[in-house]
Amino acid sequence: MDNRAWIRLVENSTQTEVSLEDVKERLERYVDMASRTGRQLGWSYEEAAFPYTMEERTENGNSWLILKGKDPKMYRGLIIGVKQEAAEKGGHHTIQILLPPGATHGDKSKANEFCRYLAKAFQGELRLFNGRIMYFYPRK
Fold first, then answer.
1. pTM greater than 0.85 (yes/no)
2. Distances from the Cα of 26 to the Cαs of 1, 34, 73, 119, in angstroms?
3. Over the stretch 69-127, which tens digit does the pLDDT of each residue have?
4. Are 67 and 54 in contact (CB under 8 A)?
5. 20-41 and 105-122 are packed helices; what angle lies between their axes, rounded to 10 degrees?
6. In sequence order, what are the beta bridge partners of 121?
7. Which of 5, 19, 65, 126 could form an S-S bond across to 119 if both were Cys, CB 3.0 to 4.6 Å?
């Protein structure tokens, strides 16, 4: 199994370009939706739905979102980045989700959940950690 998944934006996606700030906004919206659900249920659901702190790092001109787990026994962290493919490969924008060494099964489960959420939000093509592909854009 691979330690990364990616979401590729295609012609039929809601947008053809994506930035790290766009991804960060979508994840903040995810946390907001979880907190609203928690208020309706009467418990802090956002802690269970998003058990990470989010920080942005830049190294060698590349920016990454680092999600650090709040409970290291259950969740250690994830790395999310955005890149643009070479023009020969179509020039598509891609969101990558990486499981760092030492990631837990909980991290992988949350990464799959975030992948599906982001792919649905951007209507992209999702390649999961196990190699399977899910299409969230309108196909002809």
1. yes
2. 27, 12, 26, 11
3. 998 889 999 999 998 876 566 678 999 999 999 999 999 999 999 999 999 999 999 99
4. yes
5. 110
6. none
7. 126
Indicate the CATH number of 4-135 among 3.30.310.120, 1.10.3720.10, 3.90.230.10, 1.10.10.10.
3.30.310.120
Tell me, what amino acid is at 59? E
The token duo for 7 is 């979401």
Quote the CA–CA distance of 73 and 76 in Å, as a whole number.
Answer: 7
Mean pLDDT of the chain: 90
CA–CA separation, 4 and 129 (whole Å): 6
Query: Which amino acid, 56?
Result: E
Backbone angles phi, psi at 107, to 5 degrees: -60, -45
Instruction: Give the pair of three-digit tokens for residue 109.
Output: 């489960």
| Tokens at 41, concatenated | 């249920």
CA proximity to 14, closest of 111, 131, 118: 118
